[in-house]
Amino acid sequence: MPNQRQDYLLGQIQLLRQFVARLLRRREEAGLHEAIQLALHLQEKLFAMPAAEFLRLEVSEQIAALRKGESKEEGHAKCLAYATLLKETAALYAMKDQPDLASGARQLALHVVLSVAVDQPAGDTTVNVLLAELTASLGETELHPPVRELQEKFDQRGR
Fold this sequence. Notes:
Layout (H helix, E strand, L loop, with lengths): L2 H24 L2 H19 L3 H4 L4 H9 L4 H24 L3 H19 L7 H14 L6 H12 L3
Helix pairs in contact: 1-2, 1-5, 2-5, 5-6, 5-7, 6-7, 6-8
């Protein structure tokens, strides 16, 4: 992803984080829908395609779409941006009292982060922070089989 576009998306993700934090403090029901729409819009920008298209893809296909035409580093950055958007979207779904959607978004985010983690040297701070946050937010939730397999592969690497 060109640096200018990446900087824009990262800035927008930071604004989304601030929006989510404000909603959490104030419990503004009216802003939830707007924040979810913003998160979806940013995902469309990241994928450079409408949500109806990328949401139909399997997770591995979504990851491949994010990496397509990018260097390994840029592909990983796009994947981590997507995982961050999913994590924030999960927080919004949780506030909207939609725990199944929140859990699904967290599992998808964890899947994406783990796909990056197993594909690079251990020790990336961004990856480790996202992994810790997502793992904590999922708690005792049963991981979906593909996510569990990636988690086991990552754990076998010896962090």
